[in-house]
Amino acid sequence: MEGYKVLKPLGDRVVLEVQKEEEQTVGGIVLASNAQEKPQTGKIVVVGDGKVLDNGEKLAPSVKTGDTVLFDKYAGTEVKYEEKAYLVVHEKDIVAIVD
Amino acid sequence: MEGYKVLKPLGDRVVLEVQKEEEQTVGGIVLASNAQEKPQTGKIVVVGDGKVLDNGEKLAPSVKTGDTVLFDKYAGTEVKYEEKAYLVVHEKDIVAIVD
Amino acid sequence: MEGYKVLKPLGDRVVLEVQKEEEQTVGGIVLASNAQEKPQTGKIVVVGDGKVLDNGEKLAPSVKTGDTVLFDKYAGTEVKYEEKAYLVVHEKDIVAIVD
Amino acid sequence: MEGYKVLKPLGDRVVLEVQKEEEQTVGGIVLASNAQEKPQTGKIVVVGDGKVLDNGEKLAPSVKTGDTVLFDKYAGTEVKYEEKAYLVVHEKDIVAIVD
Amino acid sequence: MEGYKVLKPLGDRVVLEVQKEEEQTVGGIVLASNAQEKPQTGKIVVVGDGKVLDNGEKLAPSVKTGDTVLFDKYAGTEVKYEEKAYLVVHEKDIVAIVD
Amino acid sequence: MEGYKVLKPLGDRVVLEVQKEEEQTVGGIVLASNAQEKPQTGKIVVVGDGKVLDNGEKLAPSVKTGDTVLFDKYAGTEVKYEEKAYLVVHEKDIVAIVD
Amino acid sequence: MEGYKVLKPLGDRVVLEVQKEEEQTVGGIVLASNAQEKPQTGKIVVVGDGKVLDNGEKLAPSVKTGDTVLFDKYAGTEVKYEEKAYLVVHEKDIVAIVD
């Protein structure tokens, strides 16, 4: 996805480059395959402007482009680009950053 | 839809010109056909005045006329004009702007 | 409904004169008959004082008497007057104004 | 109900004198008998002190004793007095005032 | 229940002395036996300190010890004392005060 | 539970020492055995710091260590210590204090 | 999990080292095996920055690295690292701290 900026997520959404299942060992963490709620890892390629609070202000996102993150597998809207899967998810569906 | 202004969406709604399925490659992005939650692209033709916040102020919309956007296929209210489908959707149902 | 004021809607409600199905072409817009969520057009005959916000203030309605509007068909409370159907709907159920 | 004050509704509730079905023509309005959500008319006999807002203040009711109103038939708590039905309903279930 | 103070309800709860069905004529009001939502009358014996608002302040209860009230029959937590039934209900489940 | 402090409940939670059914007569109150929503009595052994309000402040709990309380039987998380059952419940599930 | 910092939980989430069932006696507390809502104990290895309040401020977490806590067994997202199970849970799913 040369030029990740072709897709600008709205609000607190981010665009993720999903990691293939055989790659699901990041920073030494192996994700349990039999977990009730199966998490997945991905790399953030674009970040939205942040969630709009009740008073109209924007809350800066707590993740940034390049972060590898753990997210809930069933979250988000899938798009494809040159045979790679991308996912647009809400920041609240990101469980943790994997350093 | 000569003169898009015949339809003025209320609140945080926008009117979209829905793109036909064979056109669903915008800016290099091909939408996955087997995705759980099927997104669709469309071009914004009219934008409402924005969502009213709890304090009574209006929040300026983050999309504008002419933007091509990715939205959730099952969202919105459909209207037709000269054989073209238009959709009135809430801004929250717009996933991302496709530049 | 000579003298529309016989019915004063409360809060953010408005009274609509519903348009018959064969008339459902307003300003060049033809409403899709096979849409999942079937919209309908109507003409506003009376408007309430507006929604009360959390701080107790009233939010002025964004529609006015005489507006032709697109609304969700299943919304509202139906009343009849001299063989014509009227509908009392909440402003949030009005999708767009048709100019 | 000589002396309507025997029943003092709490909060945003009001006490209504329900009108018999054969009387359901008020101010020229005939209520549709086949409507999905059947409304009914009634005359307000007592009004509560009003809804308590989040900041603790009371919001003055927008209806008053003597008003004839249109309300949702399935709303409220029924009481009887000398063979007449009374209903205690929340102000939000009152659709419109019939002048 | 000599000494009603043995039970101190929390928040916006009150303790009611429930009236037997044959006594359900209070102040001339007879409660409809075939009403969808069967109300019941009771006498308030203890009142809590009131509901805590979002800002942390307490909202004074709008009922007091000795009030005869109309409440929703299915509300509350039942306790017994010397063969009499008492009920602990939230103030929001009290429909009206019967003077 | 010598040294009740081994378990520190979070937020508006409290730790209760549950009373056996045959002991369910506290301060003269006998709990109805056929009540729809069966309450139970318990003695508070530890109290949390209180609920966090929307503005970030903590709301002081309205119960204290040593209070005998009436609570909803199906609420809470059960733990055992030396053959006695303890329960961690939210303050909102405590119906009343039994003096 | 040498270097617990490989996983940084977002918001009010924490990473827990789950304790095996035979170890479920912490500080003298034995967790009931037949409880409706089965709690489990774990040791906190990483804590997030805290929940974001409605006004945009962060609420400091009430638990810290090293705390042994009681949490709801069905909460959270499971990850594995060198044959040990870790769990990422929201602070609201932590019932109590076991000292």
Automatic annotation (TrEMBL), chains A, B, C, D, E, F, G:
Subcellular location: Cytoplasm
Domain of life of the source: Bacteria
Keywords: Chaperone, Cytoplasm
GO cellular-component term (any): cytoplasm
Predominant cellular place of this UniProt entry's protein: cytoplasm
UniProt GO molecular function: ATP binding; metal ion binding; protein folding chaperone; protein-folding chaperone binding; unfolded protein binding
Pfam family membership, one: Cpn10
HAMAP family for this protein: CH10
Subunit and interaction comment: Heptamer of 7 subunits arranged in a ring. Interacts with the chaperonin GroEL.
Function: Together with the chaperonin GroEL, plays an essential role in assisting protein folding. The GroEL-GroES system forms a nano-cage that allows encapsulation of the non-native substrate proteins and provides a physical environment optimized to promote and accelerate protein folding. GroES binds to the apical surface of the GroEL ring, thereby capping the opening of the GroEL channel.
NCBIfam families per record: PRK00364.2-2, PRK00364.2-4, PRK00364.2-5
Family named by the database record: Belongs to the GroES chaperonin family.
Annotated protein name in UniProt: Co-chaperonin GroES
